[in-house]
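In response to the reviewer comment on reproducibility (Comment 2.3), we provide here a single inverse folding case reported in full, input and output, so that an independent group could reproduce the run without further information from us. The structure tokens appear first.
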């Protein structure tokens, strides 16, 4: 069998030069008259090692990274002799400690093969969940999802099974499955990685959701900043249609499910599920009042499941392996695995999938390896731009939904952004209000006006103008935003502001 070379095609790897590596590799193989297949795989999410070149020969898959085109002659020479002696050789890819110490369920296939190969997907348990779903029928599927304890991975951690039950129980001619792939949180990329590295898993999860609630049409609402994901998704949908997994007769079952991708225009608020639905309907994305819930009156007024990419993807594992298997991972009410995205000033950035329950410090130190700058860490923001800033004493908090809520923080979509000791937390607090002012949909006053006034008050505090009165005013304003905003955009913006003031007071003049 030919030697197979794997060069990732994911956005991060591309940004780091993987296309140049792939082209140079082809040329180098040709110039040496060496046989070898160059496969463009998805990334494993070890971004600190990208471009990661993997070489499969004699039943072993060796990794080299990060590799530049100029390194290739040396790597190919080493393959003829003792590969392990090459300075970029990382050994067998499965034994790289950063990867081996993860527990990958959702990202088990990421980086293994060409993401558009249906054969590769089927070889790795692909569509097993769908086969089981077709046997179980709607209520059976919903029961499995409920029993797994799966909670939404988009931010609010709402139990997926309860949402699906509501849609199943709401009679309608037409129901919809909407996948929220807007992924607007700072430091997050798990949705993108999943869509680019394992698109069939998301498609399978959405078909299962359709079967569960009796919806025949699905939409993936994709952020416009993900053009590579768009290409992969459209190609994967076409592949799944051609193979009979999508269309009017899924796998010969007589059940129908159609799927389309719709691209957003780049507004953070369009990640909020009701503005997303407005945007999908072709309107300006404005938050809707709830009730009615989207599960009852969602897209075009019809019962709609809105779930995050990772929630829908996880469903294929739940169905393929059974709810108990999934439920056996995790801690407390946080079941399964959490996909943490290590970003910001971090030495080993990338995607870490582990069962809920490890501490934030373990993630930052064991996986992250400290800061990229080499300076001490000072503040960590978890859960996107509306998440609290956590000081060092809080880094021993276990990463599970309840433990984070207990310290006034949130896991959100699992984005972890690291700041070293050069960060100006006054500027970060200011940014939180500025972000809210820029991204507010404008429907309600506490958020639309409050964020602008908040920015002014923070500026006065930093400038030491009547600091005690202005702090009291800011506190009052944050109370109003929290209690009177229509959605979490205005309601949670006080989190980063208050945590910065509480834990990093020395940065405020
Ligand atoms: C301002 C704001 C932005 C949001 N952005 C996203 C997003 O980018 N992706 C996402 O999945 N959920 C986002 N959400 C959460 C969604 O409203 C919704 O809870 C989620 O899509 C439901 O899916 P899940 O239950 O699978 O998490 C956002 C919420 C708010 C308030
Ligand atoms: S809180 Fe902000 S984003 Fe949410 S509905 Fe009100 S104005 Fe719109």
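Designed residues, in position order:
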């Amino acid at each position: 069998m030919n030697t197979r070379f794997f060069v990732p095609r994911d956005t991060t790897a591309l940004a780091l030069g993987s296309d140049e590596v792939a082209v140079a590799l082809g040329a180098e193989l040709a110039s040496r008259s060496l046989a070898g297949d160059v496969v463009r795989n998805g990334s494993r999410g070890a971004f600190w090692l990208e471009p990661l070149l993997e070489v499969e020969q004699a039943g072993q898959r060796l990794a080299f990274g990060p590799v530049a085109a100029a390194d290739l002659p040396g790597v190919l020479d080493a393959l003829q002799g003792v590969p392990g002696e090459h300075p970029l050789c990382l050994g067998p890819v499965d034994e790289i400690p950063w990867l081996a110490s993860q527990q990958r369920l959702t990202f088990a296939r990421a980086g293994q093969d060409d993401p558009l190969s249906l054969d590769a997907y089927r070889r790795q348990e692909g569509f097993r969940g769908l086969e089981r779903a077709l046997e179980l029928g709607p209520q059976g599927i919903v029961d499995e999802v409920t029993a797994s304890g799966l909670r939404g991975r988009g931010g609010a951690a709402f139990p997926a099974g309860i949402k699906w039950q509501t849609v199943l129980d709401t009679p309608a001619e037409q129901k919809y499955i909407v996948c929220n792939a807007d992924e607007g949180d700072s430091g997050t990329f798990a949705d993108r990685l999943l869509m680019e590295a394992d698109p069939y898993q998301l498609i399978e999860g959405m078909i299962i959701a359709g079967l569960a609630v009796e919806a025949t049409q699905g939409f993936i609402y994709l952020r416009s900043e993900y053009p590579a994901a768009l290409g992969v998704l459209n190609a994967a949908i076409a592949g799944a249609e051609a193979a009979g997994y999508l269309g009017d007769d899924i796998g010969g079952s007589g059940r129908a499910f159609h799927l389309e991708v719709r691209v957003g225009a780049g507004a953070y608020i369009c990640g909020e599920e009701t503005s997303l639905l407005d945007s999908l309907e072709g309107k300006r994305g404005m938050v809707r009042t709830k009730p009615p819930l989207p599960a009852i009156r969602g897209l075009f007024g019809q019962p709609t499941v809105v779930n995050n990419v990772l929630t829908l993807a996880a469903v294929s594992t739940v169905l393929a392996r059974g709810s108990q298997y999934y439920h056996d991972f995790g801690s407390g009410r946080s079941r399964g695995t959490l996909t943490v995205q290590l970003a910001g000033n971090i030495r080993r950035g990338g995607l870490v999938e582990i069962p809920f329950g490890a501490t934030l410090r373990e993630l930052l130190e064991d996986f992250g390896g400290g800061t990229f700058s080499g300076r001490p860490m000072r503040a960590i923001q978890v859960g996107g731009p509306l998440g609290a800033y956590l000081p060092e004493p809080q880094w021993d908090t276990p990463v599970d939904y309840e433990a984070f809520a207990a310290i006034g923080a949130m896991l959100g979509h699992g984005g972890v952004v690291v700041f070293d000791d050069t960060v100006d937390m006054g500027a970060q607090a200011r940014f939180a209000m500025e972000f809210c002012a820029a991204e507010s949909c404008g429907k309600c006053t506490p958020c639309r006006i409050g964020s602008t006034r908040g920015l002014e008050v923070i500026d006065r505090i930093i400038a030491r103008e009547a600091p005690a009165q202005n702090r009291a005013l800011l506190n009052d304003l944050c109370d109003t935003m929290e209690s009177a905003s229509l959605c979490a955009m205005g309601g949670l913006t006080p989190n980063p502001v208050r945590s910065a003031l509480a834990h990093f007071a020395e940065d405020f003049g």
